[in-house]
Write a structure and sequence with these properties.
Shape: globular
Distance between the termini: 45 Å
Number of helices: 15
Largest sheet: 7 strands, mixed
Strand content: 15-25%
Helix content: 40-55%
């Protein structure tokens, strides 16, 4: 099993705790190697990451990350994300040819169950399998796809790198970035869906293989009302994801507000995350302060103070309609200026 992370220096601790959970939950896997795409990891954190791999008798390889702007030849907007998020688009050239199938995990994941069922999953017509991101069809439409096209999250991805290399997929990613002026909604995730989605090469995984925070924050019917997803999970799939996820993806969500490495974090499975931290080389590191700005904290407070129905209606309008509409307008204006 080949597993890939990409981390900046600021996320090395978080990546290391995720990696420990991966090793602990997959002790029965005969061969498991991790490729860490290094986007500025310091020497001390490198030693700690290696010590985790040694503890479990696993191989860990460091690969130098690339500058997406340099690859694309234009300025690339990362928004609130670190440029490390773009690294998964370049794995075909970053990793050696023998890495034909890889499982990409975001640093902010917690692996709770064996991943062999995910690793052995057939690709079918797809070259990238991920959990549907539970978004309205306007996000796909903003990328130039039909509104009912699949739109997968990029936090947990099973990738057919052999096919990417054969078909020049990396060049397609770069062409999409250039056509969008280097500014794509949800950065690399938008590039991946906009490119592979147009080719019919994205496929959905059960949400329990990469359950985002929003699934835990809302009951099933409220989740559908909030997100208006084009491809909603079934209630049974949602229940399996929240009750016994194989992988928890600690994404930011306006309702719970924080994440388990922050002080006072309330999300489910934070206790499991902190147990892995307590057994890791980062056990002495204090909790991080809440990284949200005043607007983020105010949004969380307002979401808990407003009547439930009003809160869901307002946030649904903003997330499912207004934001993708505004991004679409911005993209069209940029293309007109370039044309």
């Amino acid at each position: 099993m080949n597993v890939v992370y990409a981390s900046s220096g600021g996320y090395a601790e978080i990546a290391g705790i995720s990696m420990r959970s991966l090793f602990e939950s997959n002790r029965d896997v005969e061969e498991l190697a991790v490729w860490m795409v290094d986007c500025g990891i310091g020497g001390e954190d490198r030693r700690k990451l290696l010590s985790v791999a040694v503890e479990y008798g696993r191989a860990l390889f460091f690969v130098r990350g690339v500058d997406p702007a340099e690859r694309a030849g234009i300025s690339v907007a990362a928004g609130r994300w670190h440029p490390a998020t773009f690294q998964r688009l370049f794995l075909g050239s970053l990793l050696p040819p023998e890495a034909e199938r890889v499982l990409y995990l975001d640093c902010d994941t917690l692996v709770r169950r064996p991943l062999a069922p995910l690793w052995e999953r057939p690709f079918g017509p797809s070259s990238a399998l991920g959990v549907d991101d539970c978004r309205s069809g306007r996000y796909a439409a903003e990328l130039g796809l039909p509104p009912d096209a699949p739109y997968v999250g990029s936090g947990v991805l099973l990738l057919d790198l052999a096919r990417w290399r054969r078909e020049g997929t990396e060049e397609r990613f770069l062409a999409f970035l250039r056509a969008r002026g280097g500014d794509v909604t949800y950065v690399d995730q938008g590039v991946l869906n906009g490119t592979l989605g147009a080719l019919g090469q994205t496929g959905a995984l059960p949400p329990r293989f990469g359950a985002p925070t929003v699934l835990f924050d809302f009951p099933y019917r409220d989740l559908l009302r909030l997100r208006r997803p084009a491809h909603p999970p079934t209630e049974a799939e949602w229940r399996a994801a929240v009750e016994d996820p194989a992988v928890v993806h600690f994404t930011a969500c306006f309702y719970s507000g924080s994440r388990p490495w922050n002080a006072g974090c309330p999300p489910p499975f934070a206790a499991e995350y902190l147990a892995h931290k307590a057994a890791s080389p980062w056990r002495e590191e204090p909790p991080r302060p809440d990284g949200r700005g005043p607007a983020g904290r105010l949004t969380t407070a307002a979401a808990h103070l407003l009547p439930r129905g009003l809160m869901l209606a307002v946030m649904s309008f903003l997330h499912a309609r207004a934001y993708p509409w505004a991004r679409g307008v911005k993209s069209r204006m940029r293309r007109r200026r370039r044309g």
